[in-house]
Amino acid sequence: xxxxxxxxxxxxxxxxxxxxxxxxxxxxxxxxxxxxxxxxxxxxxxxxxxxxxxxxxxxxxxxxxxxxxxxxxxxxxxxxxxxxxxxxxxxxxxxxxxxxxxxxxxxxxxxxxxxxxxxxxxxxxxxxxxxxxxxxxxxxxxxxxxxxxxxxxxxxxxxxxxxxxxxxxxxxxxxxxxxxxxxxxxxxxxxxxxxxxxxxxxxxxxxxxxxxxxxxxxxxxxxxxxxxxxxxxxxxxxxxxxxxxxxxxxxxxxxxxxxxxxxxxxxxxxxxxxxxxxxxxxxxxxxxxxxxxxxxxxxxxxxxxx
Length: 306
Fold this sequence. Notes:
The protein is mostly helical. It has one domain (5-297). The chain has helices at 17-23, 25-31, 37-52, 58-84, 98-122, 134-167, 169-183, 192-201, 204-212, 215-232, 255-258, 268-287, and strands at residues 126-131, 247-251. α4 runs parallel beside α6 (134-167).
């Protein structure tokens, strides 16, 4: 099913002043995260500390189970928000095409990361030292899958969607990319260039979401990138170097190719590939008619505009 951008707008047409305030997109941007707090606060306060004290292999099993449960709870809570506040079906997390779009997103990242690492290996800058246990690959699925999912449901499905509903697609894409880059300023080995690289490379995520109007394609790209870069190939993930990976490599070469200690998000090659892929998907999104105009330029009889 082809989802139109208007289907993700609130369908409430309020008559009271309070109702108009609640339905203002930037106010809903503050309301939506509140639906996750009844789960997130007790989880992070009580459950997460208990899990951290477990010893392997029980630790892996319980953390992975926790990721699955958290994934389901987040979906349920967002559906509740969409039903109660925006009075609509949560099309953006509907189960239709979930495996196809998630798989396509993962394939896109496989090509982006694979070409970058392959070129590094061809030039002698990436060499495999050893392989780890298969359990590392399994654990990385849950770790990077849930980590990217939480980021994407907050930053794409909530922040980007509601910003786009009010300010339009172009401003929302720009704000998302800048915000995404700034969030990583405190990471290990972050520099001005690594932030610029993240801003440019992350453009593909809101564009992929804009194209499909579902979470799964963008999540597949984000999940696949982190999983392949760190979980498999053993490269830093946005500067973070403490996570276990299946491959232990040696990486030596120019930072503009390897990305240095920050990882390939700072590689000129990877940034170029991500930007090129993002522009390709953007063309497809434009052809599909998924560009949203700012609220003040849309016709007043459009769904969700009051």
